[in-house]
């Protein structure tokens, strides 16, 4: 037996023990997560652990959320920030959560889930990308009723340990039975503050949401001010085969109506590779009403003038309409990623492998739909054909797992009529996404000889090293190291 200190109190445990046993010997509920002090910060422990004489542990507050309303909320630890928050799910994860909540609510019990998220933020906007969703099974719940829900410590510890490993932010989501537009109760706020503090001591960021069919409330724990921060506006967006759509709006929104679907004039489109097909795509998009472009290409035009292709494309767009905002980037190797991550959709028409890898990486990390358009040479007779592939992170396969045939790689099949046909297929895919048309296919092959178009569907491989469980899907910005 060794002596360890739990919240400063000495207790005796075997050298091989577990978080559950430490809770038992200290008479703590099996809903309170435990962290071990290690090098100036706390580390979540879970399952079986080895301890040494003098080890120090902290017991956190349960992650209880509830809707008792009898006490007036007077917490000074809440503040509002001039900030807009978006919680982004891929459709499969959103459906999983919705169904779990429906099942709980049908039994008159509060729904509960924890999302692990990557993030992207600037001064006013924060996007959280849900990359893992943990829904407790019945045995993972310590308590669940029509007015309260508490997960078991072991469930929470496993989620927190994984979040710590991957540098993810933790967003706790729950429901209030029968409430279509719930607001946080004082129990939510009090426990949320404690949960936020505990997670901060473990180097983890915490946010929470209470969600209903018609609206939701959201707040972030701000460790620097030890307070919960409510955003000025927030929405839950879902990326599906029909692109990104808002699903639920924040209670604070002046109108809880879902904003009308994105239209060509409201999105920022990146076009990478501005030779042939890429240039054709720019001009078609401009004629469809797209007004905000990011143009990436480090090549020069074939003409004698040797002008930068990105610059030439920008000029061409300005001729189509004076109100087009087209930003061109020629130094793609250095700055492609930082510009691409702020786009709503990326067209990739290049042949540069390094740039293609950067596009795939940004698309997966920030859940940005990517449409690849190019020509290739048929293996049988050397004739050209066109290939358009829509990559929807978390839904379709990514460029690593969708099984690209080696013979597809040839380029140089470029000819004006084929380029035009391929560009128009690619642009149509985006227009279908924006209009909400039913999109069942992700891969379009165009054969100019036979004048045929073949459509296929590619599903995601969950074991994929890029977009699978261990990949970069939804990772967002690299997390700044914290001292
Ligand atoms: Zn609540
Ligand atoms: Zn993949």
UniProtKB/TrEMBL annotation:
Residues 451-483 are annotated as: Disordered. Residues 452-463 have a biased composition (Basic and acidic residues). GO terms for molecular function: ubiquitin-like modifier activating enzyme activity. It comes from the Archaea. Pfam families: ThiF (PF00899). InterPro entries: ThiF_NAD_FAD-bd, Ubiquitin-activating_enz. Residues 267-465 form the THIF-type NAD/FAD binding fold domain. This is THIF-type NAD/FAD binding fold domain-containing protein. It comes from Methanocella paludicola (strain DSM 17711 / JCM 13418 / NBRC 101707 / SANAE). The lineage of its organism: Archaea, Methanobacteriati, Methanobacteriota, Stenosarchaea group, Methanomicrobia.
